[in-house]
Design goal:
The complex is a heterodimer.
Chain A: E1 23-27, H1 33-50, H2 60-73, E2 77-84, E3 92-102, E4 110-119, H3 128-142, E5 147-150, H4 157-165
Parallel strand pairs in A: 4-5
Antiparallel strand pairs in A: 1-2, 2-3, 3-4
Chain B: H1 21-48, H2 66-69, H3 74-83, H4 88-91, E1 97-102, H5 114-133, E2 136-141, H6 147-157, E3 163-166, H7 173-184, E4 189-191, H8 192-211, E5 221-224, H9 228-239, E6 247-251, E7 254-255, H10 263-269, H11 271-280, H12 289-293, E8 298-301, H13 312-316, E9 323-326, H14 336-341, E10 346-349, H15 364-374, H16 381-399, H17 414-428, H18 438-461
Parallel strand pairs in B: 1-2, 1-3, 3-4, 5-6, 5-8, 8-9, 9-10
Antiparallel strand pairs in B: 6-7
Helix pairs in contact in B: 5-15, 5-18, 6-7, 8-9, 8-16, 10-11, 15-17, 15-18, 16-17, 17-18
Classes of the chains: A alpha+beta, B alpha/beta.
Chain lengths: ~180, ~475
């Protein structure tokens, strides 16, 4: 990587009607890791449902721990924690993980890649997904990204529809076969 | 019945309560009897070579009459239907003909045995349809590879039928198939393993609640087993005003709640169960049956038949005078005497040899009689609940007791009443193309439901059906 965009704290709120939302999003801290790991693993196990080529590794738990620790400290990564509101303020109910990476041949040169968005089921809908997307997009933009992309299993039609509704379209396909 | 249940693995299962010699011999007798009935059924199936045949319903005075019943006269009938397809319900037998469709993927307790092996069961169902409901039902097991193929196959044959009865199709695919067919077809579609069992359960429960001075709005309910029947029972209870957050659904992984590990998997594989996981959120409980059942008013077990899935101590932990439905067949999750000894005020099972049999046959013939007579477009839950309420009233009229929360199959005067309630509801909901009055529905149902028994007797008297051959095996009713 060459000239890295300036790192600023993420989660700059582009959001409205926050009061009605059942969650509040903030940058994740190292202390959140024990609560974030199970959420991340839930998402990975869901991905496995869509495709056996996304089989979750036995050591996924320590891997998640290590990666979250590194990325929370990494200025070119964004890790957000969604927490409940009111009585559930202390409860971490969702995670967003994204990185900024360079596109050496294309413009704009910096791409914000949303790797994971996961919310516990009871905290979904009511515009929460959109709120998380806005927050992570703002954080990625602040880190210099000129384009935002999202990775999810090709079979996950719900995710496909979610992003399509918000102006995303397929750009690159990743096709796989086992060796 | 439903999917499996949180039964401990054999290695960790607590030592079985030792059966007394009397109980053992009773269980042995039941097993022997089931075996005898099975052998006798094979013998009789060979003798009669099927249970249903097609019989003309018009006179044939001479072969000349075929110029009316068939070509050339019949062409005019076709032209009339071409001009107005609704006339098929008046000029053909469509008004009273139902397809019994199955892919054979979950037949009785036998599992995925395929369409050919499902045929004797579907023939038996056709016999019940005719004998109890006066409905001409055609057994149609189909060889299909996917739910989409199932749906398009049924859609393709629908023009011949006034209704579709799905049968013995595995959960959860049965939910999606039923939803999609109900959307696409202009005729009522029913899945008996979901709706029939749930409606009979709700009917019995309404009387059990009345007997124990409870109302559905305030009870706590534990549903053990989260297959076709119990998922619909939960939905119907919520429609009746049961607080979703006071329902605990328990399956083989324990209490189903919104943060259970497999809940995302369910969102993909079984959205119906997923929705209930969110709506009930475990009824505020996590864990298994012991955690869920503490203080519950009602237990409805509809699981895989594993004896002692529910144990006496579970019933003892319930609220005072609890209601226990143990619906697995042939072995209930808890034996009625054990449940009563543990304090249960009302007990129901799926078996005909105990009081309070929760039996689909109490429901589907009358529901079909009602929707066919109303030429209803569909069977929404309001109609199912109307059938359940009327069934409950039927038992009440005869005298509601803890041993009589549901009519028995012999109390057949109830069934036309249920059919009329179904017809009335279809009219009220604007789903009926044939808007009869209550008395008209009732009269029609009585006539049509009463006729087949007379027909069967007349055929026997005329020696057109062979008398039951004496077998090597004792003759007993298999119903």
């Amino acid at each position: 990587m060459t000239a890295r965009p300036s790192a600023t704290p993420g989660a700059a709120g582009a959001s409205t009607d926050r009061a009605t939302r059942p969650v509040h999003v903030r940058p994740a801290r190292e202390a959140d890791i024990p609560a974030l790991v199970p959420l991340l693993l839930r998402l990975k196990r869901l991905n496995e449902e869509f495709d056996p080529l996304l089989k979750v590794r036995d050591d996924a738990d320590p891997q998640a721990r290590q990666i979250l620790k590194a990325q929370i400290a990494d200025p070119k990564a964004v890790v957000l924690a969604a927490e409940g509101v009111g009585a559930e303020k202390e409860k971490v109910v969702g995670i967003v993980r994204a990185i900024v990476r360079e596109r050496p041949f294309y413009a704009p040169p910096w791409e914000g890649v949303i790797l994971d968005i996961y919310l516990l089921p009871l905290y979904r809908r009511r515009g929460v997904g959109e709120y998380l997307l806005d927050e992570v997009s703002a954080a990625l933009k602040a880190k210099g990204a000129g384009i935002v992309t999202a990775e999810f299993p090709a079979q996950n039609e719900i995710a496909g529809r979610f992003y399509a509704k918000r102006g995303f379209r397929p750009v690159t396909s990743i096709h796989a076969r086992p060796l | 019945m439903a999917e499996g249940v949180a039964a401990p693995a054999p290695s960790e299962r607590p030592a079985r309560r030792k059966s007394t010699p009397a109980e053992r011999s009773a269980e042995d007798r039941r097993a022997d009897q089931t075996d005898l009935l099975g052998r006798r059924a094979v013998e009789l199936s060979r003798f009669y070579a099927g249970k249903i045949e097609t019989v003309p319903k018009v006179p044939v005075r001479s072969l000349h009459d075929f110029a009316l019943w068939y070509s050339p006269g019949v062409a005019e009938v076709s032209r009339a239907i071409r001009a107005d397809p609704e006339l098929a319900f008046e000029l053909t037998g469509r008004w009273n003909t139902v397809a019994i469709v199955t892919d054979g993927s979950r037949v009785l307790g036998l599992g995925d045995i395929g369409p050919e092996a499902a045929l004797p069961v579907m023939e038996g169902k056709a016999l019940l349809f005719k004998f109890l409901g006066g409905v001409d039902a055609v057994a149609i097991p189909i060889q299909v590879g996917s739910p989409d193929e199932f749906i398009s196959t049924v859609e393709a044959i629908a023009p011949a039928f006034g209704g579709i009865n799905m049968e013995d199709t595995a959960s959860p695919k049965c939910f999606g198939i039923l939803e999609e067919l109900s959307k696409r077809l202009p005729i009522p579609v029913w899945h008996d393993d979901q709706l029939g069992t749930a409606a009979a359960t709700v009917a019995g429960l309404l009387n059990a609640l009345a007997l124990t001075d409870r109302s559905v709005g305030e009870i706590r309910t534990v549903l053990v087993g989260a297959g076709a029947a119990n998922l619909v029972t939960a939905r119907l209870l919520i429609a009746l005003g049961h607080a979703p957050k006071r329902i605990s659904l328990v399956d083989q992984k324990g209490v189903l709640h919104a943060e259970r590990d497999d809940v995302d998997e369910l969102s993909v594989r079984n959205p119906w169960k997923y929705r209930l996981a969110l709506a009930t959120d475990g009824g505020g409980r996590v864990g298994g049956i012991p955690e869920a059942i503490d203080g519950a008013d009602v237990l409805i077990a509809a699981s895989t038949p594993v004896a002692e899935t529910v144990r006496a101590e579970h019933v003892k932990a319930m609220a005072r005078g609890p209601i226990v439905f143990a619906l697995a067949n042939p072995v209930p999750e808890i034996w009625p005497d054990v449940a009563r000894a543990a304090g249960a005020a009302v007990v129901a099972t799926g078996r005909s040899d105990f009081p309070n049999q929760v039996n689909n046959s109490l429901v589907f013939p009358a529901v079909f009689r009602g929707v066919l007579d109303a030429r209803a477009r569909s069977i929404p839950d309001e109609v199912v609940l109307a059938a359940a309420r009327e069934l409950a009233r039927g038992a009440e009229r005869r005298g509601r007791t803890v041993h009589h929360i549901l009519p028995t199959m012999e109390e057949s005067e109830v069934f036309p009443e249920v059919a009329a309630a179904v017809g009335d509801t279809a009219v009220r909901l604007g789903l009926a193309r044939h808007r009869l009055t209550h008395d008209e529905f009732l009269e029609r149902a009585r006539t049509l439901m009463g006729r087949p028994a007379r027909l069967v007797r007349a055929l026997a008297r005329a020696h057109l059906t062979a008398p039951m051959p004496r077998g090597t095996i004792g003759r007993r009713r298999a119903a």
